[in-house]
TrEMBL record:
Key words, A-Z: Cell outer membrane, Lipoprotein, Membrane, Palmitate, Signal
InterPro entries for this protein: FimB/Mfa2/Mfa3
Family membership noted in the UniProt record: Belongs to the bacteroidetes fimbrillin superfamily. FimB/Mfa2 family.
Annotated signal sequence range: 1-22
Organism: Phocaeicola intestinalis
Highest taxon of the lineage: Bacteria
Entry keyword Zinc-finger: no
Protein name in the entry: FimB/Mfa2 family fimbrial subunit
Residue stretches spanning the membrane: none
Chief site of localization: membrane
The UniProt record lists the keyword NADP: no
Cell compartments where the protein resides: Cell outer membrane
Length: 298
């Protein structure tokens, strides 16, 4: 599967974005030596559409910002050279930070671990922004060096489908503990980049209306907040006669760049449900109710 994804990426970008992953040697042939930066998809990530602008931050070995740039396209980024003193650097690249995305430094501290990305509206469900981190070492300022940032979507995706519902029913789904922001250059417990904030907020999925007995809704949203034991879902189903049922579900954690699909049968739903992961793949998980469903009386 990884080879298939890579081949798709290279063929697509060869036609559309020829300078996305690397630099043409001729472009830099007559320039002063420096560091060239390109981008490619992280292994195992399914390619999505890429939007401008392209933001690049360069940090020194102590994590302090050295340079920050914005480019109109991946080609423009890849065609440039950055003159840096000898040393070790962290490169953070993100594409697509347009409305409703926000980015800034927490507490105004311009270090890699304080760079954060947020949404003006947690329920906005925008197109994906993609980003990644690379480490580069400049050991000789007299030669050209190349570094590649491998990128993946920053947001999570959640889809909810309920089968067998009465006609005229509608559904509202809220994630109770979505992160308020994420930190692209922080490392998590598994040593991977992109860490969500501990601060949490509600994120609402678009309201769904029954279509031939099925309710279906999905959204792109911040992953589950850091430190949470599970993803807390609150579902409200409203019926044609105005009555409603409320459900609370504990689901697995949502991670940045992954898609989660929750499939439920209406006649098996309970006021309180445990959700378990199935059909795990490189891009996400399928979710269903576990056998251990109970009603704690809330």
């Amino acid at each position: 599967m990884k080879n298939t994804v890579r081949n798709f990426l290279y063929v697509s970008l060869l036609m559309l974005l020829p300078l996305w992953t690397a630099c043409d040697k001729d472009v830099h042939e007559n320039e002063s030596p420096g560091l060239a930066v390109g981008m490619e998809w992280l292994d195992g990530i399914e390619p999505t559409d890429i939007t401008s602008p392209v933001n690049l931050w360069i940090y020194d070995a102590d994590g302090h910002e050295v340079e920050a740039h914005e480019f109109s396209s991946p080609q423009e980024l890849a065609s440039g050279l950055f003159s840096l003193p000898e040393g070790d650097y962290t490169l953070v690249g993100v594409c697509g930070l347009t409305e409703p995305y926000r980015y800034d430094y927490e507490n105004g501290t311009r270090t890699a671990d304080m760079l954060r990305v947020s949404l003006a509206d947690p329920s906005a469900s925008p197109a994906h922004a993609v980003g990644g981190v690379a480490v580069a070492s400049v050991t000789d300022t007299r030669i050209n060096l190349r570094s590649v940032i491998r990128v993946a979507p920053l947001l999570a995706e959640l889809a909810v489908r309920i089968n067998g519902v009465p006609e005229g029913a509608s559904l509202a789904v809220t994630v109770r503990n979505a992160a308020t922001c994420l930190y692209p250059a922080r490392r998590g417990d598994d040593n991977s980049y992109v860490v969500p904030s501990a601060e949490k907020t509600d994120a609402l999925l678009p309201q769904a209306v029954a279509d031939r007995g099925t309710l279906s809704t999905d959204a792109r949203l911040m992953p589950t907040a850091q430190g949470e034991a599970c993803t807390m879902l609150y579902l409200v189903m409203t019926f044609a006669d105005g009555s409603r049922h409320e459900y609370t579900a504990e689901a697995p954690l949502m991670l940045a760049g992954k898609r989660y699909e929750l499939a439920l049968e209406y006649d098996r739903m309970q006021p309180y449900m445990y959700i378990t992961a199935t059909d795990i793949n490189p891009w996400g998980e399928g979710w269903i109710t576990s056998d251990d469903i109970f009603n704690p009386g809330i």
